[in-house]
Specification:
329 residues, conserved putative lor/sdh protein from methanococcus maripaludis s2 fold, 3 domains, alpha+beta, 6-stranded antiparallel β-barrel, transport, OB fold (Dihydrolipoamide Acetyltransferase, E2P), elongated, MFP_Cation_Efflux, HlyD family secretion protein
């Protein structure tokens, strides 16, 4: 190989080397070592370092904890007012003002609706004076048989109503409760007098007690209905509001638990495992048998982990056995 004189001259001037006969091959070797050797080694080292960094997954770890847990049965229910009264017209006539509004509180015996017969309106009997014994105004008052809240008002002032027509409904708030739907396969876990927890849609939790079973089952979905009485103060709730009712299937017991995100599973949810650290840079796959979940933590039935075992909490998804990891805070 012949090196151009301009290249040799430039290299000699830069390095101070003396050109000698046959120095072309020596100079070529020096050029190769200077330009290719050092840069190639640096590139290989950087590539290896970069590969090592990318191969390690950033993870955080946690530890097993001893918690008091119970096997909980989660069921659905609705709010209900089992005691309600329908207020009906007792004669044919016109509904007089003022007409109450839904949500209004009423007392037992309080007049809720007032009717005027068509004869009274035509003859103005309510304006006649004379012998009180012969006076008939044609004004009919319809009271509430019990105290409660006026749930519906079906007519407006001035409407003409027939005898027996519905005017409104009054709910007895003192008899407010919940209707619990229990699948027939779970009936052995529910009994009268059992305490329960009622979770409202906004997250509030009420305490309650199973009262009595209703003597009918839903044929389509095969569920038995129970009534549930709330304990303590209850906010004013509408009827047919969907709630969640939790009952304990077993007595509370002490168990070792892990956060939900620490337990991994396959697509069929038949195999479960966690990633445990062997050292600061290696995580191994450990099959586990999970138990019930409560408050975001899962009971680990087996194996028995030491309180000092470090379990990967985040960054564990997709890791293989003996995966290289890097601890982060």
């Amino acid at each position: 190989m012949t090196i151009p004189d301009t290249v040799l001259k430039h290299f000699v001037n830069r390095t101070g080397l003396v050109r000698r006969r046959g120095g072309g091959l020596l100079l070529l070797a020096l050029l190769t070592q200077a330009c290719g050797g050092s840069s190639g080694g640096t590139a290989d080292e950087a590539s290896a370092e970069e590969e090592e960094v990318h191969a390690r997954a950033a993870v955080t770890v946690g530890y097993v904890a001893a918690d008091t847990v119970a096997d909980v049965l989660h069921l659905s229910g609705v709010t209900a007012y089992p005691a309600k009264d329908v207020l009906r017209a007792t004669t044919t006539g016109y509904l007089m003002a003022p007409v109450p509004v839904p949500g209004q509180q009423v007392r037992a015996g309080q007049t809720v609706f007032t009717l005027q017969t068509k004869e009274s309106r035509t003859l103005h009997l309510d304006r006649l004076t004379g012998d009180p014994k012969l006076r008939f105004s044609g004004i009919i008052r319809i009271p509430s048989p019990r105290g409660g809240v006026l749930a519906t008002v079906d007519k407006l002032a001035g409407d003409y109503v027939q005898d027996g027509e519905q005017l409104g409904t009054v709910y007895d708030q003192s008899r407010f409760g919940f209707v619990l739907d229990v699948p027939v396969t779970q009936l052995r876990y529910v009994h009268t007098g059992q305490s329960c927890r009622i979770t409202l849609p906004d997250g509030r939790v009420l305490t309650g007690r199973v009262a009595e079973p209703l003597p009918a089952a839903d044929v389509a979905v095969q569920t038995q209905r129970y009534t549930v009485r709330p304990l303590g103060k209850v906010p004013q709730l509408p009827e047919n509001l969907a709630v969640t009712i939790d009952l304990d299937k077993t007595a509370p017991q002490l168990a070792r638990t892990l956060p939900r995100e620490a337990v991994l599973t396959d697509e069929t949810q038949t195999s479960f495992w966690v990633m445990r650290l062997l050292n600061d840079s290696t995580a191994v796959k450990v099959p586990v048998q999970p138990g019930p979940e409560q408050n975001g933590r899962i009971v680990i039935k087996s194996p028995v982990f030491s309180p000092h075992d470090r379990i990967v909490l985040t960054g564990n998804y997709g890791l293989d056995d003996t995966a290289a990891v890097k601890l982060t805070r």
